[in-house]
Design goal:
- The chain is of the alpha+beta class.
- It has 3 helices and 5 strands; from the N terminus they run βααββαββ.
- A 5-stranded antiparallel beta sheet has the order 1-2-3-5-4, covered by helices on one side.
- β2 and β3 form a beta hairpin.
- α1 packs antiparallel against α2.
- It is globular and about 40 Å long.
- It starts with 19 loop residues before the first strand and ends in an 8-residue tail after the last strand.
């Protein structure tokens, strides 16, 4: 799956081109949620991102919710889920891509319970949620941006 070239359309201030990035793929099955969480945790630990913080807990919850949504609502259209983690000194982004072109609502009023939680967590950390279609209607990516007032890496 090809990621859109401009991943941060809703927040042009957030530019993670110079960041650490990791993309991993899990099969769209119930175990995907556990696998995506474990890969995300391992990545953040390896990069020494805000170890033991509430931010890491929020990111893990967001990954869980977004992958759960793919398993529940797009599993018949998307055999795999791609997860992107990108970190810069004061920002963190999670992207979850699937092959279902249907765009979910991301406003707090229209989103389902899981996406409402994702929106709330992103806003708590000064970020937001963006959904971008993947080229030629072959799916979508849900991006969740977190801004942090302090440096993310280190002790």
């Amino acid at each position: 799956m090809r990621w859109p070239s401009r991943a941060t359309t809703a927040d042009p201030q957030l530019d993670l081109r110079g960041s650490c990035r990791r993309v991993f793929t899990v099969r769209t099955e119930p175990a995907a949620v556990r696998q995506a969480r474990a890969c995300t945790q391992a990545t953040l630990t390896e990069w020494e991102v805000a170890r033991g913080s509430a931010l890491v807990d929020a990111v893990l919850l967001v990954v869980s919710e977004l992958v759960t949504n793919v398993v529940r609502h797009a599993g018949d259209r998307s055999p795999t889920v791609d997860v992107l983690i990108a970190v810069d000194c004061d920002a963190l982004m999670v992207g979850v891509a699937d092959r279902d072109p249907r765009i979910p609502p991301t406003t707090r009023e229209e989103a389902g319970e899981g996406l409402r939680s994702v929106v709330d967590l992103a806003q708590l950390y000064g970020g937001g949620v963006t959904v971008a279609p993947v080229q030629e209607g072959r799916g979508k990516v849900v991006f969740v941006h977190f801004r942090c007032p302090t440096v993310l890496t280190g002790d």
